[in-house]
Amino acid sequence: MSDKSARLTLGNETWDLNVRQGSVGPEVIDIGSLYRDTGMFTYDPGFTSTASCESKITYIDGDEGTLLYRGYPIEQLADHGDFLETCYLLLYGELPTRAQKEDFDFRVSHHTMVHEQMTRFFSGFRRDAHPMAVMTGTVGAMSAFYHDSTDITDPHQRMVASLRMIAKLPTIAAMTYKYHVGQPFVYPRNDLDYASNFLHMCFAVPCDEYKVNPVLSRAMDRIFTLHADHEQNASTSTVRLAGSSGANPFACIAAGIACLWGPAHGGANEAALNMLTEIGSVDRIPEYIAKAKDKNDPFRLMGFGHRVYKNYDPRARIMQKTTHEVLAELGIKDDPLLDVAMELERIALSDEYFVEKRLYPNIDFYSGITLRALGFPTTMFTVLFALARTVGWIAQWKEMIEDPSQRIGRPRQLYTGAAQRDYTPIDQRS
Ligand code: CMC
What whole-number distance in Å separates Cα of residue 85 and Cα of residue 108? Predict the structure, then answer.
């Protein structure tokens, strides 16, 4: 608690509100008793000034371009650690010792298979279904296959469900991809690391040997680490809100996946690449820049701007490096889409409109280019984001369930509809 308080004056009355100080970041005015004390709500569409929970997991300083997982800068985790280490950190709060890491890696890699009946569940979907539609359905269906880990009051079951999701989401994502492209499912291999196993399940076929390229697997692992958590964004808040009613963890993560799909959130990586394809060549960029600036045109440059990062998205900086590593490894030089991307980046970073509004390229701008180079169709991009974000959603869900002050989430509203009126029989309506 801070020693400050905030004073609210309404007419002749005043109320003192407690001010809370986090470990870092802005102070927070606690308005929990506002309605009880004043009979008034606050109004904040889009939650631009509202903290919905207390959390110890992830911290973002949008002005400084800082992202910390449990206090550790994303750059250090991406450079020196691997994704499963980040998963452990997000779930347990501390970096693992060597023995803890080995045990965690073992537990995750030995839960990668999914119930065999799930393979038949997939065939209920149309082949041309969007992979995110399939993901939302199949992850939601996990609660039908793993009901021995849906009792949220049991800490052991909570942890089993958490590990199951971290371990099985890559398998489900790869099955979604295989179903999408009409190839047979490839079973997981426990001898491979998390990212290599995922690439193997996506790109191996029964008629050929598939050798995982370590540079590409490292890039995949880094993409997962960069997307692992991002504090109270739309999908994470969705998971928390769904979980606040006591819904089972698989259902909550499916809700998060559904929310992530939107183009203003996780769907932006797919939208960014579709936009680059639509632009097609460097000489058409000015036309699209003009559209983005036109107030009467709803078009936005996908992969640019962020609600919180108003300086630079630190994940984008790391991703940009990874993009170049992957392109160099694959020998991709003459890619017209890449030319469009690089020129768009250059213009947006120097154009007054974008500079003034602080619209920098975000992680989705670079991850789309990298994922395409890795061989994924654009329709799979958001699926990969969902796979990586699952651990963040789970860590946030667990934190919420384990918080003694947790209550069902129930936002209020500013009602502007009709006041009470009497029903008019249909023959008396004009
Ligand atoms: N292109 C052109 N103009 C833009 C863009 C853009 N991408 N983004 C924001 N603006 C303008 C917007 O028109 C507004 O102008 P004005 O003040 O004149 O009305 C101003 O910038 C502020 O925009 P806003 O919509 O109030 O900002 P926001 O914080 O609500 O939205 C955003 C953030 C990410 C939804 C938005 O920048 C956007 O739609 N970007 C494109 C989609 C995208 O790349 N999303 C991925 C975000 S990163 C991954 C993730 O965390 O999910």
Answer: 11
